[in-house]
Amino acid sequence: MLGIGTVAKKIFGTPNDRKIKATRPLVEKINALEPEFEALSDEGLIEKTQEFKKRIEEGESLDSLLPEAFANCREGARRALGLRAFDVQLMGGIFLHQGNISEMKTGEGKTLVATFPAYLNALTGKGVHIVTVNDYLARRDAEWMSKVYGALGMTTGVVYPQQPEDEKKAAYGSDVTYATNNELGFDYLRDNMKSSLEEMSQREHYFAIVDEVDSILIDEARTPLIISGPAQDRSDLYVGIDKLIPELTDDHYSLDEKTRNVTFTDDGNEFLEDLLHSRGLLEEGQSLYDPESTTIVHHVNQGLRAHKLFQKDKDYIVRDGEVVLIDEFTGRMMPGRRLSDGLHQAIEAKEGCNIQPENVTLASVTFQNYFRLYDKLSGMTGTAATEAEEFAEIYGLGVVEVPTNKPIARLDEDDAVYRTTKEKFDAIVETINEAHEKGQPILVGTTSIEKSELLSQLLTQAGIKHNVLNARQHEQEAQIVADAGKLGAVTIATNMAGRGTDIKLGGNVDFKIMEALEANPEADPEDVREKIEAEHAADEEAVKQAGGLFVLATERHESRRIDNQLRGRSGRQGDPGRSAFFLSLEDDLMRIFGSERLEKVLSTLGMKEGEAIIHPWVNKSLERAQAKVEGRNFDIRKQLLKFDDVMNEQRKVIFKQRLDIMKADDLSEIVRDMRGEVIDDLIDTYMPPKTYADQWDTEGLYAAVIEQLNLDLPVMAWAEEEGVDDDEIADRLDKAADEMMEQKTDAFGPENMRAIEKQILLQTIDAKWREHLLTLEHLRSVVGFRGYAQRDPLNEYKNEAFQLFETMLDSLRQDVTQKLAQIRPMTEEEQKAMMQEIADQRSAMEDAAKAKHAGAAAAGAATAAGAVEGFDENDPSTWGNPGRNQPCPCGSGQKFKHCHGRLA
Ligand SMILES: Nc1ncnc2c1ncn2[C@@H]1O[C@H](COP(=O)(O)OP(=O)(O)OP(=O)(O)O)[C@@H](O)[C@H]1O
């Protein structure tokens, strides 16, 4: 009998079915357009792209263009790659365009699917990013799919680590850009540390298609990208705090050894506050709970942990005046490893060692927050349904399961569970042997390099020839993968054989052709191709007869998705195949997460040596264990994200400000407003509202005006005048400051003054923001620690982070005002001295360069002194072949790229 749910599904279809059904008419439209686009010339496809762009400019929507654009893209791909996209691939593309996650089974051709929405959306001219998990895939996919975009008249770029700046900028300037999540995130951070728009490499964040979206937006989402920079020396602070730790007694705090945390008691807090005051570490009137005290509280916390929770010669040793950590599992020293957040420095202070400066975070962003910058986000995966809830909640992304092109023919066997690792491996070798004898190609998945090598030994002992694919062998990756589907091949792999590993039954025909051509360079390539293709068809058939690729996994991963990815190397595009997981009760997952119930059932079933238990119930039970782990990880991520959101909001404000500042030509109004607020603050401080003149601190105001505005004004006398109130004094200060700045502007010239204002603003924002980041990091570690009253740490954090942000803005205004008040043009002598210094430096550099290049001056290269012989401005063939960063051959002394290189 069918359950009610099943009956309902039969009648109404699942929500997923309805989404699939809803796109059918669109797919039909694209199919109907096929003959029309097939009839176009190669030029005609490119002209279509031009036409579409124009129509968008004229206001046509992407949705209405979709059928034609997809039809054009399908035709382009057919001509460029020889692949005609299946209907289900078009569907996957439509869902991506609509901002969903398209879940398409492994091997269904997602790389091609992405070209459709990428092409359509790039028609706006805004640039589409396709995100991959590693550089190898970024390059491979860009190279492979650039043929499609090229056929349509669109440009493709690929971004990679350590790429020269101009190349990177060009890559981001392309219609479609392939990049890893890491590079994208880092480029974003680097861009926001630059000081002019021209230096920024990324354009806007318009549309991203994230391949293997679960791995990027879920597994790696928590890891923040961090750019850290010049160290800060705060030895005095550490030493100062270290000295007060011995004065704290047991009543002042409690220790939690398991989590290695300390919490102060109410008494402790009070005592500490007094102590910090008496040592001058807290200012008069400043409380421990003020946001400004965050950093100091954090360091006291670290100092206490250093003293009470870290033991010399157990947790660390002191060697040659350095604190070296000891690994708690292996008992070995870990030279070079340092505890973070000032804890290592606190231990150094405790041991009287030299205190090494800490690295400071200059910028950071999590992937979650980076990807939320995009106007539209979408993703692809083989296996998203397990995380649908998280995608919806965090990114607002829906998951649509796209049906496969052909039914899946792979046989997925139930897990086989053995008692011990040894029994398991014995059984694995035996199973490999059996399948191998039939000639069935086998891919064996292992979880680590060690295990892959152990298994390799066992197979060698058993006389089974095989290849090993792990990080040590990654050079031969392409070759090993190309061979892995051949008759009789046995390949042991770590999780490197996951997404993107495309194992072809019978071997990779392109590789075979290349090999044949290498062996016989004389032969006619076309003949060779024909011959090899015919042979390959027979090879492929033989492998299919042997059952296709057999994926044998030697363990289950914590996450079901990783298991499914491995499985998915087999049974691609409807091919036959087989997958099986071999487990033992000694596996990590079973030991840590296997339920007691599972163990009980297994023992009552009575396992004999060498025998496995194979039962669907075991699979279910294991999946439940995996689901539990996944659920717990999800909760941790959600919590972290909430904390990170706070910083993210602030980051957005700051980065937006920076961008506005960089774009603006004239910031004098902004700077003037800042100055006005500084003056208002001064008045509020020294002549507080609702006070009488005799309560004013006009001498204090006088001194502050000198310090912050660089103005020596008779404020005391002003205050004595009849009828002069705080407003009047503020007005006079405003006026005097404006006059001074006008004089400065005249002296520098308005254009220079505007440039100076811009630089000072940017530099000060950057410096303040960095400081603020560090404070926020500290705040995060102390909110839990301030659990004196049952307050919610997240709320505490939010409130304090907000106050800190305001404080930062105040001090930003002050700094900018103060710096601008102090600038002045150089005197003639100073200018001369500076010019001389620059000239000296230059000639020293030139001498050094000459010495280096002596005798090696390449013909045609320009020297700083003059133009290249025969240089003709209008004839580039007379320019030699200068590099972009070399001196221009015209002799201007500028770099080529800034001079004639611009015309070339
Ligand atoms: N329309 C098509 N017709 C024939 N073959 C295709 C088509 N689309 C893709 N393929 C082939 O399918 C194979 C798998 O493609 P691809 O690597 O993009 O799959 P995938 O979905 O990304 O798989 P995985 O999830 O394992 O990475 C490739 O060999 C590709 O050439």
From TrEMBL:
The organism that produces this protein has a lineage beginning with: Bacteria, Pseudomonadati, Pseudomonadota, Alphaproteobacteria, Rhodobacterales
What is the native source organism of this protein?
A: Roseovarius pacificus
Task: List the Gene Ontology MF annotations in alphabetical order.
Answer: ATP binding; metal ion binding; protein-exporting ATPase activity
Signal peptide residues on this chain, from the entry's feature table: none
Q: What is its EC number?
A: 7.4.2.8
Residues the record lists as binding ATP: 89, 107-111, 502
Where does the UniProt entry say this protein principally localizes?
A: membrane
Protein name, UniProt field = Protein translocase subunit SecA
Domain Helicase C-terminal per the UniProt entry, residue ranges: 424-622
